[in-house]
Automatic annotation (TrEMBL):
The gene is YAF9. The keyword RNA-binding does not apply. Residues 7-176 form the YEATS domain. InterPro entries: YEAST_sf, YEATS, YEATS_dom. This is Protein AF-9 homolog. Residues 173-182 have a biased composition (Polar residues). The keyword DNA damage applies. Residues 211-252 form a coiled coil.
Length: 256
């Protein structure tokens, strides 16, 4: 057997990616000229490398992922013509127009040399700003207000891990090292990952993922874990008190 088809046991190698979407409000002129005049937004859903180029106005995409990804299939809402869109070369993205949010299935197929099964991801298309306006916090702002707020970004960081890769595929991966994430912020972080105390810093400009965000995310998860544990302890104490009250009532009824 060729050494290229032998798996390298005990080794894992990963590639950082982001997936998600950006959306902008159509101008009145674009809506007027559109065949479906109820459409309000233009959006792009994409799979990209996690690092952003310094001179780029998009999130991520510093690296060409075509060296290990053969195809990305985006499964849109069934109301779209040809809802399963196959993209066989970078950039792995689909741009459409519409008015509603829905879940998009993303299927990543790797090059044959990988010998790996496709990966399935799911992304909820985000059209409306993360900050609601007006009296009803659950309602999206009017399109003219949303247009002033600028593009909406919704991106998820992930790492595709290859365990015990074939030697040939490992050679391909190691010959294309990913661009490292910046250690500190050069741009705003994605709005929905920002701490409430730093939301103002995340407004405006194109967001970017950084190495520091991993530590920040771990801290947020730890805080959430502590909050859950505290709530569990509170509920457990309340349950014990209720059980004591029930036992007392049973004794009182038995003495009656």
């Amino acid at each position: 057997m060729s050494t290229e088809r032998i798996r390298v046991k005990g080794l894992s190698i990963y590639r950082p990616i982001i997936y998600g979407n950006t959306a902008v409000v159509l101008t009145p002129e674009e809506r007027e000229a559109h065949p479906s005049r109820e459409y309000t937004h233009r959006w792009t859903v994409a799979v990209r490398s996690a690092s952003s180029a310094e001179d780029s106005d998009i999130v991520g995409g510093a690296d060409d992922l075509g060296y290990f990804i053969r195809r990305v299939t985006f499964k849109l809402h069934e109301t779209y013509p040809n809802p399963s869109r196959n993209v066989d070369k970078p950039p792995f993205e689909v741009t459409e127009t519409g008015w509603g949010e829905f879940e998009i299935q993303i299927r990543i197929t790797f090059i044959p040399e990988a010998g790996e099964k496709p990966v399935l991801l799911y992304h909820h298309l985000k059209l409306h700003p993360w900050t609601a306006s007006g009296a009803d916090a659950d309602a999206p702002p009017p399109t003219d207000v949303a247009a002033q707020l600028g593009p909406v970004h919704s991106w998820q960081y992930d790492e595709i891990v290859f365990t015990d890769p074939f030697q040939q595929f490992l050679n391909t991966l190691t010959s294309h090292p990913p661009t490292q994430l910046p250690k500190t912020r050069r741009r705003p972080v994605p709005f929905h990952t920002a701490n409430p105390s730093s939301l103002d810093a995340s407004k405006g400009g194109v967001p970017e993922f950084t190495a520091a965000m991993e530590k920040e995310e771990i801290q947020r998860l730890e805080e959430a874990r502590k909050s859950v544990v505290a709530e569990q302890e509170k509920l457990h104490a309340s349950l014990i008190e209720k059980e004591k009250e029930l036992e007392k009532l049973r004794r009182d009824l038995g003495d009656a």
